[in-house]
Batch of 2 targets.
Target 1
Amino acid sequence: MNSQPTRTGSVTTMADSPGHPAEASPQPPIARRIPSERTFHGDTIVDEYAWLADRDDPETIAYLEAENAYTAAMTAGQAGLREAIFTEIKGRTQETDLSVPTRKGGWWYYSRTVEGKQYSVHCRCPVRPRPPRPPSTEDGAPLPGEQILLDGNEVAGNSPFFSLGSFSISPDSTLLAYSTDFAGDERFTLRIKNLETGQTAADEIPDTFYGCAWSADGSALFYVTVDAAWRPYRVWRHLVGTPAADDVIVIEEPDQRFSVGVGLTRSERYVVLALSSTLT
């Protein structure tokens, strides 16, 4: 009886036969070709893999899972090497460390990393009359009078992914605007924390992008959203204490060659709306 390869998922196996033990030979998955025409400026192109752009299609998900399974099968023998390299890198890294403090008003702002933890702890401590130079510690330990503004490890919890997008202190140093992403799609949820009470406001703004800026009196927060192509194209104004549904568009850039951003001048007296071309 002849042995014939049997395709199962992304792995091809040889059926058992006398004198021929079963073997697993990983094979890459093959994506279906479905011609799809697109016409731009009179030129028509045929894209046979356009169907993969539908991220929610079960067939797209199944194909990506098959690619991941193939990668895992091909690299299974490297697990020991990966662990050895990671251990060496980790052994040369000072995990408990302190960033260079930055002064703003009567505070020094900085972040700390702690051995064994994944994310930074964002802090501040009061400026002392003497010495006026930035504070530091030899071992990266907490500074005297430290106030923890946001502990990334607590915010992340048990989530498999966490990223901090925006982190902005109001001009009077009483409010913190920060945004979080728990999915990895760079769609951040913007929140406001009162640094005097430690309470997070009910304000919650979904689907924001990197960057935000406070008004001089801290009553309004400006932020950015993206279009379907992930292009930052709108700057919004949010009034603290009001629903996100009431936010208004400050500027919208329809030209797809340009992106928008928002920030403050160094004096914090003016909000800057920046437009830049990714091509030029």
Target 2
Amino acid sequence: MYRDGNKTLHWRQMGRGCFLLIAWFLSRFYERPIYTVFQYLLLAVEHNDSGYLMAASAVLVLVNTIKALLLYEGWLFFADGLANYLNKPLIKRLLPLFAIPACYQMVAIFDFPGIPHFGMPAVLSIASVMLIQYFTRDVSRWSNKAMALGLMLFSFQWLDVVPALTSYGFGWGELSAVLKNIAVISGKAKVLNVMAMVSFGGVFAGALVTIELFVNYEKRLAQLQRLRRQERELSALREEQLRNRSVIEIQQLVHDLKRPLTVIIGLTDVLSHSLGNPAEKAHLKEIQDASVNMNKMVSEILNPHVHHRISVEHVVNYTLSQIRPFPWSSGIQVSLHNASSTSFIEANLILLSRAIVNILDNAHRATAENSSPIIRFQTEVTKDHVLIKVEDNGYGFEKEPLPHRSAWGSTGLGLPFVRSVAKEHNGKLSLGTSDELGGASIALLLPLCNTEEVGGEDNPVPRGN
């Protein structure tokens, strides 16, 4: 089955072919160029000048070439579209071979004005269609194919005005016969033979060179595209390797932190039973709580699938603490829903906060050149979900970011990372435009967990992919 876009393309090809065929049919009734040929012939007879004879030949050849090109290109387009639409490549080869002679026969049967003669040039032209289809099989642009075919037709049409080839089936049409008879009567047959054959040879050689240039150009273009694609793939692979290496190194570093943290937690627990000073116990309790929190963060970094039950307010506060060292963080307008402190989600705090930090950082970049930057960070709590939303008055999204790249064109952390974190938390990331601020609007929708759920903030809840 073809996709709708391909079907539209095939119908467009067939429509273009029908348009050219209609133009060819109407050209049979347009006789003004023929009058120009007769004028030059009259001047050639009156002045006995071979120059006028050659001018008449050139106009006649050009007119016949244009008309033939409309017919040939029309059937080539129609056959190409029909073959692709029906998925039958043989139609592309055979239909023009039968349809073009049928059109010549049709105008002869119905006695249309300007009846073309289906002689040897037409036969050679049809053969050239087959050759061009073969030689230009790697040429994708239809304009290049049309130019190559036009040169071929132009060269073969010159054979119609060669008096020496009349006995071989060339130039049996009315105008061609008149032109050659005048050349014979006026003694200019040899001149016309030489000039027409030279024109044929030059144009035919030019057609072959043109076809070769088009084919080589298309091959080089395809090779360049292939090299660029390979370079992009290699670059993406190198970047992926660097990211993997960085992740592995971070994982190893965090893993090494587990041992001293375990020692600190154990020692603080021992000291808490031996100290009697209330002030010292209070300080020790702070050290112990900080060590436990660090141990929890290390666990979340080492295992992103481990989630804890935490409040929405805690997620927001922890996220803001991560960007507090940056000067632009003070300009963020934070708006928390009243139920943010009593609404809980199952989340990996490290991953989720990094995702929100990325959103805020993108908003800062988008508004960095704005004289009055506005970044709004708010939460909305419903019965079953919490919506974490960031809006700005920057330039917004020109197009949807690619799934494997960030909105800034890098392959580092960005919206693709945020989208993966949302998926990990059974949430949804949506991108849009802020109706009020006019910039980007990014919303992260996460499900709430029940307050009666087992596993508190200190009890991890493992999750699968």
